[in-house]
Amino acid sequence: MDTATRSPLIRLHANDNVLVARQPIGIGQELPEFGLRMRAQVPAGHKIAARRIPKGEPIKKYDTVIGAALRDIEPGEHVHSHNLELIDFDRDPAFCQDVRPIDYVPEGQRATFMGIVRPDGRVATRNFIGLISSVNCSATVIKNIAAHFTPERLAAYPNVDGVVAFAQTSGCGMSSPSEHFDVLRRTIAGYANHPNLAAVLIVGLGCERNQVADLVASQGLAPGERLRTYVMQDTGGTRATIAEGIRAIEAMLPAANDARRVPVPASHLKIGLECGGSDGFSGITANPALGAAMDILVRHGGTAILSETPEIHGVEFMLTRRAVTPEVGQKLLDRLAWWEDYTRGHNGQFNGVVGPGNQAGGLANIFEKSLGSAMKGGTTPLQAVYEYAEPITQSGFVFMDSPGYDPVATTGQIASGANLICFTTGRGSMFGSKPAPTVKLASNTPMFTRLEEDMDINCGVVVDGELTIDQMGERIFEHILRVASGEKSKSEQLGLGDHEFVPWHMGIVS
User: Fold this and answer.
1) At what angle do helices 469-484 and 286-299 cross, to 10 degrees?
2) What is the pTM assigned to this prediction?
3) Of the four, 159, 173, 324, 362, which is 20 to 30 A from 395 by CA?
């Protein structure tokens, strides 16, 4: 890929039969460097036929099939969903074929950040006290407890990042046992155990299916000074539970405030990789640049967590070929097969259609979107595949099954142990998370400039010709270290993250 030239068009691979518009291009515009005359007005990020493409010929981007021509397409024509159809084609998983050894940085030379070391040796990037509802019926109570702890009331505890309520809308009116029930409990336990929470208060109603005592016992949680529980029907109701909860948090604050940041290796970083509002530049700038940053992180011993299973549909072979064993590759295929079966049985969508924002941004179908999405994971071997919110114990590049819906996917990553989230966007997603902070990466400069208050990093400089992908990856990695050390991300400055705890209800699909 050559993005340094100032041509209005970008050629991503020599074998591609489409080009990408770097900027809006008008009908009739001459592009002599490619021997083209534009036959349509094309927005930035969209595709243009590099030559005549006969009906039925596969259309290639990054030398990867993203569909086939619905009709004959002439040179200079706009190529999009109106003349490109999704086709199925043989995708050999070729397990382990592309596995390459990791060039690890020697331990004594690895990057460091200022982290908070917990008594069990795990490392936090933030220091919150959390409240978790076992059921929707206790959501108002935990929100009111958290609201009591205003910045003024927390001023005496400068090392505490805040008191945050993780309210949710399930916990009852569901089958138990069931997959949904297991996933909910696993997610709550993942948050209760998260190193970014210095202490936790779990509040239930009392008659719900997700009983607090059973939740604690089934997930191996250990009540004590760090973890306390209340049941509203036993405590005296709404006001009494709020008052008791406030007293409990007040008792937890002094110990939480004792936390101090110390230098720790970057190997303690677990980064959740997310994308939302993708556009035609996402797979050219932000996603591959984040992938380059994750390659650096893995070389320093850290962990990169790719998710959003429906959004690797069509390019799963790019991951199975990097699987360290056939079993790891097959587990990824098994999760995709689960999605196909589940959506078929629930009249869900697994048909390649992408959202309106993706379409407007230049992405014609899920194969094209997936091509960019998978790039966030970099190029190192796929070490393991996990189920949603399952604790991640393997370092390196891993995959966690999840929907493509941003809050649900990110909630699962945090429950699995991610202590920081990197979120790429082309259209401009306004997202933040707690207790793990979110860093947002813009795919193009116009959007970054328009939404700079929400965006942390402008990856559009790659397509602008100012930086290479590798240079952008270095810049992202250095930014990650600063945020992990306590520098506030843009979403933190805006106060986002209080409403983005969204455990996966098994009916949510992308």
Assistant:
1) 60
2) 0.96
3) 159
